[in-house]
Write a structure and sequence with these properties.
38% helix; 152 residues; single chain; two-stranded parallel ribbon; 6 helices
Length: 152
């Protein structure tokens, strides 16, 4: 599974689906994934060489388990431009919108010092996002993956 990569791609602004959203134990999971990729015009990223072979040009095989290597590979083949955009919820893929004051104030996990921070809200899973130490860590990982590109 590529769950961590899925979350990072969402934070980079890419519309992604994850096999984790499928019913567990589905013996036809590979066929379902290939069908979704074909019908939605998506690319299938996988660590399963046989699934990538079956997917043909709709599938990308990622040999590494390392997130940095995965991002580096996708950037090298021109599929992603590594940058942190806060366009999508990292959990559910819903487009984010600027958070309203009441949403920020209602999130007990939001930082107490809010001056100068921008907040974003997922209207589906009701999750609050902001630029903090976690985003600095993610930016650093993206920058490490592809040092010659900006990780805004």
């Amino acid at each position: 599974m590529l769950g961590t990569l899925t979350r990072y791609l969402r934070l980079m602004g890419y519309d992604t689906l994850s096999a984790n959203a499928l019913s567990p134990g589905n013996p036809r999971e590979d066929t379902v994934l290939l069908s979704i990729a074909a019908s939605d015009g998506r690319l299938l990223l996988t660590r399963d060489a046989e699934l990538a072979r079956r997917g043909g040009e709709r599938a990308i095989y990622l040999s590494s388990e390392d997130l940095t290597e995965q991002v580096r590979h996708l950037a090298a083949i021109g599929l992603v431009v590594p940058s942190l955009r806060f366009d999508r919820c990292s959990l559910c893929n819903t487009p984010l919108r600027p958070a309203k004051k009441r949403e920020v104030e209602g999130a007990d996990y939001a930082p107490k010092e809010r001056q100068g921070l921008s907040f974003y809200w997922c209207p589906l899973c009701r999750r609050l996002y902001w630029e903090g130490s976690h985003t600095r860590r993610i930016r650093r990982q993206i920058r490490d993956a592809v040092p010659d590109l900006r990780a805004d």
